[in-house]
Amino acid sequence: MHKYSKQTRHLLAVDCIVFGFDGESLKILLIQRGFQPEKGNWSLMGGFVQQNESLDQASNRILKELTGLDGVYLEQLHTFGDTSRDPIERTISTAYFALIDIHKYEKQLSDDYHAEWFPLKNIPGLIFDHQDMVEAAKRRIRYKAALHPILFELLPDKFTIPQLQILYESVFNTTIDKRNFSKRVLATGLLIKLSEKDKAGSKRGAYYYQLNKQNYYAKFQAFLNFIPNPDTLLL
Questions:
Q1: What range defines the domain where residue 167 resides?
Q2: Cα separation of 82 and 6, whole Å?
Q3: Labelling 129: which of 14, 203, 212, 231 has CA 20 to 30 A away?
Q4: Do the domain assignments include residue 6?
Q5: What is the pLDDT of residues 18-46, one digit of tens each?
């Protein structure tokens, strides 16, 4: 086998940032690292890319091995290559992020590596540069959510407008006027109103809605006016 001469070999890794929504708060999935250095400390789901794998294949394999999650959509975020990011060897890592409905995957979640959901506002200290990865993922999601209705990926098949508002407020770290939010989201034509109500929060209850998949794809490229405060995109 021919090799490039006089070149230094580096390790290649992937790290998976999984965001989930349980109807009340936005959360992130973390595991306890199983080996040194930083053994036992909180970490993203990460591992090394094998010789016969693409980055996408490695990210799916690693996520399944460490959490049990399978069939989760993963989008490539950014490659992190600081020379000192791993104290053992020079390791370059490509980060991926995913958006899931926590309840949809809770039966699939394995506890072999103590995978645990943490509120996004209360993340424990993370190993290496994993906090930088999380911050980069948050910025990417805010940017994409202002342009496209991707946050619906975090919701169950039927949901209420108050749940949707909580989700958007969590992602953009802001407070949105209730009436204005309801008016804007209904004006998109993306929702189908159901006859069923969620009465857990009040006697009057809130109607459930479903996503209109046809309109979702048709309007996917024109969503910016849905966000009341676009300045939060850069926070």
A1: 149-227
A2: 21
A3: 231
A4: no
A5: 999 998 889 999 999 988 999 999 999 99
